[in-house]
Amino acid sequence: MSNNFVVPRFVAQAVPPHTEGMRIGLLGGSFNPPHQAHRAISRFALQRLQLDRVWWLVTPGNPLKENGNLHELGERMQAARDVADDPRIEVSCLESVIRTRYTIDTINTLRRRFSGLRFVWIMGADNLAQFHRWQDWRRIAGQVPMAVIDRPPQSFRALASPAAQALARYRLPENKAALLADRPAPAWVFLTGLKLNLSSTGLRNPDGSWKGKM
Question: Where are the transmembrane segments (predicted)?
């Protein structure tokens, strides 16, 4: 089945409420499980990027990860809502609705159907370090501005990565972060100052169950 398969009448139902002109941060991930670092990153981005909302895009599965221990989508969605606990953070199952696991297809769908919104893709420094392995990563960078949140000790590895080097001339100074949503892509900023270092991997037991849950 093509990754571009879309069921148009359901797409709008999977997209959180919004109004024309909103500045929306997009944070994709498996959220297996969601945790306080996801919330902290989102709130940090809301402030530093002057965003109106952050949408958590809970993926059906990550092509770069082993998905054998992935919890059911509904369970991850509900857990994400519980952790978010902020009216500015919305949880979406869009990628399940459009039947893709690839960020480029998600971004294409959002930009095509919601052209009046200004999107920013949010990722941690650990993801920038492997961004060159993502499907059509250059097209992603060319379609939506990106905010990279520093996650020590990943800083050097991230900024020395192939993608960071290839996109170096499009990097904004950190003190211009509030302008990112208005910049045409490619444009990106590396945001420092957030020191949380939780990870979903660290919150899973060897059998895939979530720590703290039976």
Answer: none
Which sign, positive or negative, has the C-alpha torsion 170, 176, 177, 180? negative
- The letter for the amino acid at 129 is A
The strand pairing partners of 56, in sequence order, are: 27, 91
| Predicted local distance difference test score (pLDDT) of residue 212 | 57
Tokens 């892509």 map to which residue? 185
Q: What pTM was computed for the model? A: 0.84
Map out the domains of the chain as residue ranges.
23-203
Spatial CA neighbour of 147 closest among 127, 161, 165, 169: 127
Task: Give the tens place of pLDDT for each residue, 45-69.
Answer: 999 999 999 999 998 866 545 545 7
Q: Degrees (nearest 5) of the Cα angle 85, 31, 176?
A: 70
Q: Residue 120: which H helix or E strand, with range?
A: strand 118-124
CATH class for the region spanning 23-203? alpha beta
Please, which residues bridge with residue 53 across strands? 24
Total Cβ atoms within 10 A of residue 129: 23
Q: Which of 199, 63, 183, 149 is nearest to 159 (CA)?
A: 149
